[in-house]
Specification:
Distance between the termini: 30 Å
Largest sheet: 10 strands, mixed
Strand content: 25-35%
Shape: globular
Number of strands: 18
Number of helices: 6
Oligomer: single chain
Order of helices and strands: EHHHEEHEHEEEEEEEEHEEEEEE
Length: about 325
C-alpha cells in the first residue's frame, strides 16, 4: 500500500522571533530597536503575516494527507520522502536553502510577505495552496525543472546549490589556485602575452592542446545557474559590463566569473568569465593553505579545501522541480 502524500511546510525563524530569543521580552526588543530608530511593530507585523500564511497553508492540506513542518536550521537533519510535496513559505532564498536536500519532490513556493520579495521562486500566495497541493501531487503537474550546480572534490565530497557556488578564501586573503577546464570541448589557447588583459569570455574552441590551465590569484570564483543569474551572478555581470548572455533558470548552461583576478609574473587574468555547456566543468586546484566552497550564501555548510586539493564545478544531474 502506497503512503498518502505528505505536505512538508518549510519556514524560517522570523526576525521578531530572533529578537525575542535575544532580548527575552517584547518590551526589551522594542527598546533595543527604538534606540536604533526602528519600530518593533513593523517587525512584529511581518512576523504575523508569515504565521498567517503558514496557518492558511496548513489549513489547506487535504484531510487524507499527512503534514509536518521543518525550520530552515533543521533542513540538514530532516529526511524527505519520495511522496512529499514541499511547500516553502517565506522568501525566494528559502527555496534555494531547501533545494539541495531534495531529490525530485515537487516544490511550491508561497510568498509569505508579498511586496518584499522578488517572487522568482515564491510565485504563489497562501490562498492558492488549496488548489496547488493536490495539483502538485498529481502525475500531470506542470513544473519548471531548474538547473542546479555542484562542486565535487577529488576525495568525493559534494556540495549542491540552486543559485551559485563560491570557491575562495574564508576571509579577506587572496585565493591562489590553478583554473582549468574539462568536458567535451576544450578552451581556445590563452593569449600568450604576459599579464594579458581580461577577455570577455572563455570561448570553447577545438584546440588540440587540451585542458590548458592558468594559475590565478583572485578574490574567488563564482559558478552559477540561470536562477542565480537574478542575484550574485548578475551583480558581477553588471559590474564588469559583461558581454555574456546569462542563462535562463531551466537552461543547462552555467555562467562563471573570477572576482578581482590579479596579474603577476606567476598568475594570469586571461580566463575571468565564461559559460559552461552541459558536460563541461571548471577544475580548480588549490594553491592556498585553505579555501572554502559554499552554495547559495550558506557559509556554515561549506567544503574546506587544502593545498593540492582539486574541486570540479559543473551542472548537477539533480534539478529542482518548481511548480509554476
Amino acid at each position: 500500500m502506497s503512503l498518502a502524500p505528505r505536505a512538508v511546510l518549510v519556514h524560517r525563524t522570523t526576525e521578531y522571533e530572533e529578537l525575542l530569543a535575544r532580548h527575552g521580552t517584547h518590551g526589551q526588543a522594542a527598546f533595543f530597536l527604538s534606540a536604533r530608530g526602528r519600530s518593533v511593530e513593523e517587525v512584529r507585523e511581518r512576523h504575523e503575516r508569515v504565521h498567517r500564511a503558514l496557518a492558511e497553508v496548513a489549513g489547506a492540506v487535504p484531510l487524507s494527507w499527512r503534514q509536518t513542518r521543518v525550520e530552515r536550521a533543521d533542513l540538514d537533519r530532516f529526511l524527505f520522502g519520495p511522496e512529499d510535496v514541499v511547500v516553502v513559505v517565506g522568501q525566494d532564498g528559502l527555496v534555494a536553502n531547501a533545494a539541495k536536500y531534495l531529490s525530485g519532490q515537487p516544490v511550491i513556493g508561497i510568498d509569505a510577505d508579498p511586496g518584499r520579495n522578488a517572487g522568482v521562486l515564491v510565485r504563489h500566495r497562501a490562498a492558492q495552496a488549496r488548489r496547488l497541493l493536490p495539483y502538485a501531487a498529481g502525475a500531470g503537474a506542470a513544473v519548471d525543472e531548474l538547473t542546479m550546480v555542484e562542486a565535487v572534490t577529488d576525495d568525493a565530497q559534494r556540495l549542491l546549490a540552486l543559485n551559485e557556488i563560491y570557491v575562495g578564501p574564508p576571509g579577506h586573503q587572496t585565493a591562489r589556485y590553478t583554473l582549468g577546464f574539462d568536458g567535451p570541448k576544450v578552451p581556445a589557447k590563452p593569449n600568450p602575452k604576459p599579464n594579458p588583459k581580461p577577455t570577455k569570455e572563455w570561448r570553447h574552441g577545438q584546440d588540440p592542446e587540451q585542458q590548458e590551465s592558468e594559475p590565478q590569484a583572485s578574490s574567488g570564483v563564482l559558478v552559477g545557474t540561470g536562477t542565480g543569474a537574478t542575484g550574485w551572478l548578475r551583480s558581477l555581470w553588471e559590474q564588469r559590463s559583461s558581454a555574456l548572455t546569462l542563462p535562463a533558470p531551466a537552461d543547462a548552461r552555467l555562467a562563471w566569473f573570477v572576482r578581482e583576478a590579479w596579474p603577476s609574473p606567476t598568475t594570469g587574468t586571461s580566463r575571468v568569465e565564461g559559460l559552461l555547456d552541459a558536460g563541461q566543468g571548471l577544475r580548480l586546484t588549490v594553491e592556498s593553505d585553505r579555501l572554502v566552497a559554499f552554495g547559495d550564501g550558506v557559509e556554515s555548510d561549506a567544503l574546506h579545501l587544502t593545498w593540492g586539493q582539486t574541486v570540479r564545478l559543473a551542472a548537477a544531474d539533480a534539478r529542482l522541480r518548481l511548480v509554476g
